[in-house]
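User: what does the whole thing look like in 3D?
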Amino acid sequence: MRRKKNPSPPLKWGLLSTARINRALIEPLRGSERNELQAVASRSEVRAQVYAAEREIPKAYGSYQAMLDDPEIDVIYNSLPNSLHSKWSIRALQAGKHVLCEKPLATTLEEVDEMRAAVEATGNFLAEAFMYRHHPQTRKVKELVDSGMLGRLRLIKGEFTFNIDDESNVRLKPELGGGSIWDVGCYPISYTRFIMGKNPEEVFGWQHVGDSGVDEVFTGQLRFEGDVFAQFDSGFRSPYRSRMEIVGSDATLIIPHPFNPGLEVDIQVWRGEESETLQMPSQELYIGEVEDIADAVLLDRSPGISLEDSRGNVEVILALLSSARSGKPLKLE
Ligand SMILES: NC(=O)c1ccc[n+]([C@@H]2O[C@H](COP(=O)([O-])OP(=O)(O)OC[C@H]3O[C@@H](n4cnc5c(N)ncnc54)[C@H](OP(=O)(O)O)[C@@H]3O)[C@@H](O)[C@H]2O)c1
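Assistant: Here's the predicted 3D structure for the full assembly of 333 residues, as structure tokens:
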């Protein structure tokens, strides 16, 4: 179903599930003049009712489809487990909604292509919720690299790990699209591809598959055109670590909070033994992706993260997983 162009603000949002990550969106939605939190849906009527009552959300639905059938809802926030991203984003688009879908957009290229086909058929917007991409620190880092201040780009390193404390976590379930590379490895891969502005030519991965059946530790290498290299690791069995390092012929940038920059952030530039701290522009972490959807819907602009970009990330992750299974490097098309 095509929705009417340019609905009037505030856009009415519905949370698709009672996922933990919803909490990140609730305050930004409430603080935004162009957006409004209107509904939550759950597989369980009771869970939806309790969730809505505790958070003063006006409407609660005991099934996902029931919320999609509500003509008052403009935007769906898809916070389902990874394996359900494509199915429910497509259903939402077909129900006339715009969709902000959690990362990773999907776990196969076929799913991404079906999502893109639904966007084209309905004219509704769909964007991957990589919140860090909308933070001004990320744009500043890209600007600094593009300005040439590091000299010739040589190497990009990234890490994102944490210890999972609950063995029933959806991240440990293969059937729900679990695994550390999908959950957190996707960030340094996305960051690296953003800095490079393209996909690598070749990748190589190693993984430790735990008793859960998913990769619980992953380490990968990416080779870009012109022999710019990248390395990253992700995992569920080490304490929290999150960092990016961008190495050029003249200087190195260290970004201590690349994926979750808060209100006070800074980065360091190292030239040999000398370092300088650069204060970064600040912004609440999740407001950017919310306002980006409002810009798309209300001003008819393309979302900040294109489907082509999200497809590229999925493609690289799949290639790394395939390489890890075969034990061989893999060239991308
Ligand atoms: N951008 C970020 O900062 C960020 C951070 C964390 C997570 N995420 C992403 O957000 C998504 C959700 O992560 P989360 O940690 O918030 O997940 P979670 O707390 O486990 O919630 C997932 C929700 O999905 C629903 N669901 C539907 N089918 C399910 C099934 N078979 N098993 C379990 N739950 C099912 C459940 O809601 P109902 O029971 O109410 O239907 C559940 O509450 C993932 O895609 C993840 O990658 C993003």
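In plain terms: The mean pLDDT is 97. The chain has two domains: 11-131, 136-282+315-331.
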